[in-house]
Amino acid sequence: MKLLIVGGYGTFGGRIVQLLENEPRLTIMVAGRSLASAQAWCAKRGPVAARLVPAVFDRNGDLAAQLASLRPDTLVDASGPFQAYGEGRYRLVEVCVGRGVNYLDLADGSDFVAGIPAFDDAAGRAGLFVLSGVSSFPVLTAAVVRRLSSGMARVDTITGGIAPSPYAGVGENVIRAIAGYSGQPVALLRGGRKALGHPLTEQMRATIAPPGRVPLRNTLFSLVDVPDLRTLGDLWPQAKTVWMGAGPVPEILHRALICLAWLVRIRLVRSLSPLAPLMHWATNRLRWGEHRGGMFVAVEGTDQAGRQLKRSWHLLAEGDDGPLIPSMAVEALVRKTLDGHAPAPGARAAVNDLELADYEALFAGRTIHPGFRDDSGGTDRPLYADLLGDAWQGLPDEIRAMHDHAKAAEGRGSVERGRNIISRLAAWLVGFPEAAADIPVRVRFDADAQRETWTRTFGAHSFSSRQFKGQGRSGRLLCEHFGLLTFAMALATEDGRLKLVLRRWSLLGLPLPMWLCPRSTSFETVEDGKFRFHV
Fold first, then answer.
1. In terms of domains, do 181 and 228 share one?
2. Are 318 and 109 in contact (CB under 8 A)?
3. What is the pLDDT of residue 83?
4. Global pTM?
5. Which CATH number is 91's domain given?
6. Are residues 456 and 443 in contact, defined by beta-carbon separation less than 8 angstroms?
7. Mean pLDDT, to the nearest integer, of 183-203?
8. Which of 327, 209, 344, 196 is nearest to 265 (CA)?
9. How far apart are CA 180 and CA 177, in angstroms?
């Protein structure tokens, strides 16, 4: 296949090249307005299995002549911003259909994607596929909703959001698109009616937490203009509300953008487009925090018996793998086409052309971790099982028995204490026991519907704490209350161990900075058939 990527050395186009360069059946034409930039990009990739060819392609030039010269089998438009294409926004689509070239784009604008079906008849007659919105929004979200809604008689609410790593690197065209639609009216589905929303002026908070993984920090999401606002409502016509957001960090920059979007909404300024260069500079230079990103999709509905169901899908991506996800839909479609499973002819949003299994095959081998949660309630699951979700069953029997409504446990333990004044003060505040090499240990568990009280006795010394499921910014975390202090911990599973990872702490409910937080290495494991703990 000869694959022409318009914007091939840009942010998204470059990631498509990175994902497909190991495919020997491909000739990839890396195209843009600058031949020198295309040549530099191809040279930087080094020896790869695919054949990389730098090329010149100008969307505003003679498209028919350029396509006739390059003669691609499939064209991918990874340039944008699609919201700013103007009256001739579909020129490239028209020329591709006329020249017999399959077409894919990464359009993130709801209006642009909604207009693609106008070419369905022409594409069908030519035997071509013309697919728009081939990215996480709406292809991945639609595939996830299909999985989450399995067994539901009706889907009522679909919400989702993407939280990129602050180190992901954001292209100029993405920022131009965001600046263009911030505060502007956009059509969406709310409360069972068509309504208008205003991107970046509507917010929600959520915690992305695949079962058994340390979750992302609770994130502020703002409404964004993405194709999902329309396409998901068309796929699930009974849905009453569809809402999709983005959660960029650091949050202080996000909140600054929210304030600017409100200036547009109340018509004090016409558009944020003139600020796009400044926004691009700030986004790619003023960044701190964890190099992790993620995504969530949540569906609420009812089953055949009318029972309320609430399910969610979470994805966590570590390091540099997260930024590749928006380009993986193109990768999956190209590989399927090479294997003889090309999309059906016609022009449409690509919401039905990939399933979650297609993505899961691409996630394997990368530090990308998806998982499902059932938040429907109505089950008498113990606290730890509720927080761990699907990861609970992967723990050893001995660990699950300890947390599955156990009343008491007995064994042996050892306590080591520091000698400096800070160590003594910290142990005194919490009520930890004195140092001992080998003493009897007993733990009594008193559980009710809201919390568990653990009373630990080391020798003759006893102290207790209360554990409960975190809410709000401590959502998806296990909270443990010692006197005036509360610690919020993530439950993570790894190699048969259950790790407790500190994420937040507070004094009398007042959040405290993590750089002041006592550090701990805490885990539960099984050795010689016995439950063991280490803090």
1. yes
2. no
3. 65
4. 0.92
5. 3.40.50.720
6. yes
7. 94
8. 196
9. 5
Round to the nearest angstrom and report the end-to-end CA distance of the chain: 57
Number of domains in the chain: 3
Same domain, 495 and 398: yes
Stronger pLDDT, 120 or 284, i.e. the higher one: 120
Please provide the DSSP assignment of 467-487 as one string.
Answer: EEE--GGGTTSEEEEETTEEE
Whether pLDDT at 174 is above 90: no
pLDDT in tens, 220-261: 999 999 999 999 999 999 999 999 999 999 999 999 999 999
Provide the residue count of the chain. Answer: 535
At 415, list the tokens. Answer: 């306590």
Of 132, 158, 183, the residue at which a domain comes to its end is 132
Residue at 486: amino acid letter: T
Is 340 part of any domain?
no
Packing angle, helices 91-99 and 63-70, rounded to 10: 40
Give the residues across from 408 on adjacent strands.
444
Six token digits for residue 486: 């509360």
Phi, psi for residue 455 in degrees, rounded to 5: -110, 115
Q: What gap in Å lies between CA 520 and CA 535, rounded to an integer?
A: 7
Q: Is residue 328 part of a domain?
A: no
Residues 236 and 286 in one domain: yes
DSSP for residue 138: I
Distance CA 232, CA 138 (A): 8
- In sign, the C-alpha dihedral spanning 326, 354, 16, 371 is positive
Query: Do 303 and 449 belong together in one domain?
Result: no
Residue 88: count other Cβ atoms within 10 Å of its Cβ: 11
In DSSP notation, 221-290 reads: EEE---THHHHHHHHSTT-SEEEEEE--SSHHHHHHHHHHHHHHHTTSSS-SGGGHHHHHHHHHHS--S-
Domain match, 171 and 60 both: no
| Domain annotation covers residue 25 | yes
pLDDT digits (tens, 9 = 90+) for 427-475: 887 788 888 999 999 999 998 878 999 999 999 999 899 999 999 999 9
- For residue 236, give the nearest of 141, 110, 360, 124 by alpha carbon: 141
Residues 277 and 404 in one domain: no
Range of 68's domain? 2-132
Taking 80 as the threshold, does the pLDDT of residue 352 lie above it? yes
Would you say residue 431 lies in a domain?
A: yes
Mean pLDDT value across the chain: 93
